[in-house]
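Page 37, continued from 36.
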């Protein structure tokens, strides 16, 4: 992990569940037909318990919670955790539906590699911070700022192995669509792809 020192530019980073792209997706998104809900197994009325082992700014967790899943968010960066905590607090004070969604979200500060052995979720979602890809457009400013805080997840394979040992149903790895599979893992059971992202699904057992 890189230094947790803040710079003035990092003050631009905010966790917002009530407006912007997150709020729009909540109101007008594609429901359970979207790639991520399909990847975690949200068929019909199934509402799995999910651990988002690399919570970031919580957008994937919020999406799943908005569709009925109970989601535990684990974040090991104190800075990102504080942003999440602030965003969730503001969402709890929002009107109606958004507050109800956040009630299905539980935030933990810690390293998922250490915490997962004591938990037994249906699904573990892993979205590691990987090095920026070459020959691509400059990454979004927000992602660049997050990477500046958390660095690159050099222990992503260890995290995936901890997830595979803990999940009762499946582990979902969120990965760049055209990237090679993560080294050191068995082949996924299946994959679900979006425009720029794919979900490698590893069924438990």
């Amino acid at each position: 992990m890189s230094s947790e020192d803040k710079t003035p530019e990092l003050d631009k980073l905010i966790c917002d569940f009530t407006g912007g792209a997150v709020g729009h997706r909540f109101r007008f998104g594609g429901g359970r037909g979207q790639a991520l809900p399909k990847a975690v197994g949200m068929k019909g009325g199934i509402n799995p318990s999910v651990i988002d082992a690399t919570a970031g700014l919580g957008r994937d967790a919020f999406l799943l919670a908005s569709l009925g899943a109970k989601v535990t968010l684990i974040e090991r960066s104190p800075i990102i955790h504080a942003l999440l905590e602030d965003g969730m607090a503001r969402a709890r004070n929002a009107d109606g539906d958004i507050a109800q969604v956040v009630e299905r979200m539980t935030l933990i500060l810690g390293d998922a590699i250490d915490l997962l052995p004591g938990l037994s979720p249906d699904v573990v979602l892993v979205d590691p911070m990987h090095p920026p890809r070459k020959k691509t457009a400059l990454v979004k400013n927000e992602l660049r700022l997050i990477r500046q805080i958390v660095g690159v997840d050099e222990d992503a394979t260890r995290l995936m192995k901890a997830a595979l040992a803990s999940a009762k149903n499946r582990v979902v790895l969120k990965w760049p669509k055209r990237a090679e599979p993560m080294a050191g893992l068995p082949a996924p059971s299946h994959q679900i792809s979006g425009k720029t992202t794919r979900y490698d699904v590893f069924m438990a057992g």
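The domain at 33-203 is CATH 3.40.50.150 (Rossmann fold). Flag for discussion at group meeting. Residues 13 and 141 are 9 Å apart (CA to CA).
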